[in-house]
Amino acid sequence: MLNLDTSIEFLKGIGSERAKIIRNILGISTVEDLLTFYPLRYLDKSKIYLIKNLSEDLPDVQLKGRITELQEISSGKIKRLSGKFQDESGTMDLVWFRYSKWMKEQIPINKELFIFGKVTLFNNTFSMAHPEIEIEEKKEAETRLKPIYSSSEKLLKWNLNQKFFQQTLKNLMAEMPNLINENLPSYLIDDLKLMSRQAAYFNIHFPKNLEHFEAAERRLKFEEAFFFQLSYGLKKQYHKTNSIGNPMPKVGENFNTFYKEYLPFELTGAQKKVLKEIKKDLAKPIQMNRLLQGDVGSGKTMVALLAMLLVLDNGFQSCLMAPTEILAQQHFNVISELLKETGITVKLLTGSTKKATRKIIHDDLLSGELSILIGTHAVLEDIVQFKNLGLAIIDEQHRFGVAQRAKLWAKNKIPPHILIMTATPIPRTLAMSFYSDLEVSVIDEMPIGRKEIITAHRREKDRAFVYNFCKDEIKKGRQIYFVYPLIEESETLDYKNLMEGFERISEYFPNPDFNTTMLHGKMKPAEKDAAMQYFAVGNANLMVATTVIEVGVNVPNASVMVIESAERFGLSQLHQLRGRVGRGAEQSYCILMTTDKLTNESRKRIKTMCETNDGFKISEVDMELRGPGDILGTQQSGVVDFKKLDLINDGKIIKASKDIVEKILKKDPQLNEASHISLKNFYVKQYKAKNKWGKIS
Ligand code: ADP
Ligand code: MG
Fold first, then answer.
1. Strand order in the sheet with 317-321
2. Ligand with an atom nearest the CA of residue 299
3. Lowest-confidence range among 30-34, 120-124, 278-282, 323-327?
4. 265 CB under 6 A from ligand 1?
5. CB neighbour class for 628 (10 Å; exposed up to 12, middle 13-18, buried from 19)
6. Can you name the residues that pair with 347 across neighbouring β-strands?
7. What is the CA radius of gyration of the chain?
């Protein structure tokens, strides 16, 4: 008897050969995979169109008539098969670009039949490519919508066409009662008026009508959201009972004095809110694991500093880690400046810290002399030991892997609280699924007085205009970034581009009136710092750089960013880059230079950038364009593999399932009640087995 884990080679009409091909092309290997190979769309065969009523924007249509002509046409080596189709209202063309002799002989001439497919208008005549043909006498009455599955040249080459999938799924439907057990408690199904699981699988492939399809889809979406939330809830529950942390309930002198006397500005409401969340977490005897999301420039550094002061008040040490030397240096500069009058010492540890200094830092950390350390990955080295590390903050998380986070945990007997800060604003549900073990805080408000950055799209023909604009801005005392793309496949080529750009710009902005400096990945850390410093203090008006400057760098007087070949950048990267300007009081500009010809996707990216400064909106468009799996880099993709659930549009379902799961776990944390047995069994089998979901302890 079949079950969900049965290999598809044992299904009627497949066999080992075809099973292998299907597995290779579609990644489908079990009955369950096949069941969740959901149709892309559906054909309504209850309706018959007339040729005279056709239009190009119709979905696939059904027509009734006869094929009156069929001939092979060759142009050079390429052959195609062309036919005429006639119904009571007119005539149209049929065409096959791929066909076999056998297939050609099967096509009946002058016989009543049905054809299905998508029509396009060509030379004023409608034409259908590769129509699906059904002879009238053999045709059963259609009472259901017909599923259309994703197809490809490769599949068709092996004759794995729509008919094949439709028939295979139809055969499978007969087995449905043996295959599918309900996995949701019956009270939920009743309350939410959900379709049963069995009916949902049936109706997602062969819905009777649109309502049945919608009900099936709703059920399957809910199920995905529900089990995702369950795993999330269980993980949190597990964490709460198993992850001890040092409680830090005190708000003491360091925090209060700084807050009252040295805070250079009033915190935004969002900063206050987030700080409160962190305070509350720190006070508990449970390890904090919090993700702090805030758009570029929203003021995450200050939140980090205040959290470190709280920790200090409770007698513990903190460290703040950044992904690059430049950034670590910058945090160090900003924070030591802020703490200058307080007597609290801060030190910087990076790969280029001198040996002697390093030794002193190591000693001071161990003795507890040093309470705030700022650094790069160098902080993770085993030789770096703390007396009592209470909080580790990681800036710009997407450059830090999970393994590195784990290393931090081990730096203290009782693991330190962890705060991860990211400027890649991602929709909350996506954040939850990526960092499923983290709580999420969001700074959703910018400091007041910030001017919106004006963003414009310019092309090669506008270059002189753009340069003149830059000259005017420089005359007003501003500084300018020119950014060149860096794509790993062709580092040398990019380097060449950068050098040419540098020369061109130096020529256009000549010494001594202007001064241009350069920053790129091939420079040594010390050289990079020097170049950055040179620009930051205003010695150069222009900086020509690669994306090295993408993250975090802060030069408030730089108010124009020109991004070359902007079509080669991803959306979130463009947004990060743009965040380097708009940091001072002046009106800032971002100019996106592109070639004349753009793909639809790059046009959409550029347009989005010109229309909005809102990082969350941008990340949503990004997610639409690239799919959630890609957003945070390939190493983490695959974590979100929803088949039906759409993280952007199904917010309501996601929220509802979250509330329901919370209620269930509150009442029955181990899922031991009779009504939850099927739920638990399913969860344990499906999710725990895959080893990426929360534990039931
Ligand atoms: P990001 O979140 O991108 O790391 P930063 O922490 O670098 O942002 O802050 C950007 C700038 O905004 C800094 O110059 C900082 O001093 C300033 N800033 C932060 N919070 C406030 C505030 N509440 N009011 C005014 N300026 C602020
Ligand atoms: Mg920052």
1. 346-349, 372-375, 317-321, 389-395, 417-422, 289-294, 439-443
2. 1
3. 323-327
4. yes
5. buried
6. 373
7. 31
Residue owning the nearest CA to atom 10 of ligand 1: 297
Place of tokens 């593999």: 641
Q: Determine the pLDDT at residue 696.
A: 42
The strand pairing partners of 417, in sequence order, are 391
Length of the chain: 697
Please report which ligand is nearest the Cα atom of 394: 2
d(CA 63, CA 133): 10
Q: Which of 266, 298, 394 to mutate to test the pocket of ligand 1 (most atoms within 8 A of CB)?
A: 298
Q: Hey, what amino acid is at 555?
A: V
Q: What is the pLDDT of residue 100?
A: 81
Cα 243 to averaged position of ligand 1 atoms, centre (Å): 32
Ligand 1 pocket check for 582: Cβ under 6 Å: no
- List CB contacts of 213: < 8 A, sequence separation 6 or more: 42, 145, 203, 204, 207
Q: How many Cβ atoms from other residues are within 10 Å of residue 410's Cβ?
A: 11
Element (H, E) at 347: strand 346-349
Q: What 3 state SS string does 190-255 have?
A: HHHCCCCHHHHHHHHHCCCCHHHHHHHHHHHHHHHHHHHHHHHHHHHHHHHHHCECCCCCCCCHHH
Q: pTM above 0.85? A: no
What does the pLDDT read at residue 635? Answer: 36
- Which residue's CA is the nearest one to ligand 1's atom 17? 299
> 297 CB less than 6 Å from ligand 1?
yes
Stretch (H or E) spanning 129: strand 125-129
554 C-beta closer than 6 A to ligand 1: yes
Give the atom of ligand 1 at the shortest distance from the alpha carbon of 395: 4
pLDDT digits (tens, 9 = 90+) for 94-150: 999 888 888 888 899 999 999 988 899 988 899 999 898 888 665 555 677 889 898
Any ligand 1 atom below 6 A from CB of 168: no
Q: Is the CB of 349 under 6 A from ligand 1?
A: no
Is residue 693's pLDDT more than 50? no
Probe residue for ligand 1, chosen from 259, 262, 265 as the CB with the greatest number of ligand atoms within 8 Å: 265
| Sequential DSSP letters for 149-186 | ----HHHHHTT--HHHHHHHHHHHHTTHHHH----S-H
Q: Using one digit for the tens of pLDDT, what is the confidence trace for 408-460?
A: 778 888 889 999 998 766 666 666 655 656 788 889 888 887 788 999 999 99
Instruction: Read off the pLDDT of residues 322-332 as tens digits, 9 standing for 90 and up.
Output: 988 888 988 99
Task: Find the helix or strand (DSSP H, E) in which 42 lies.
Answer: strand 41-43
Alpha carbon distance 336, 485 (integer Å): 33
Token pair listed for 421: 């800060």
Q: Is 360 helix (H, G, I), strand (E, B) or coil?
A: helix
- The least confident of 358-372, 514-528, 538-552, 596-610 is 538-552
pLDDT at 694 over 50: no
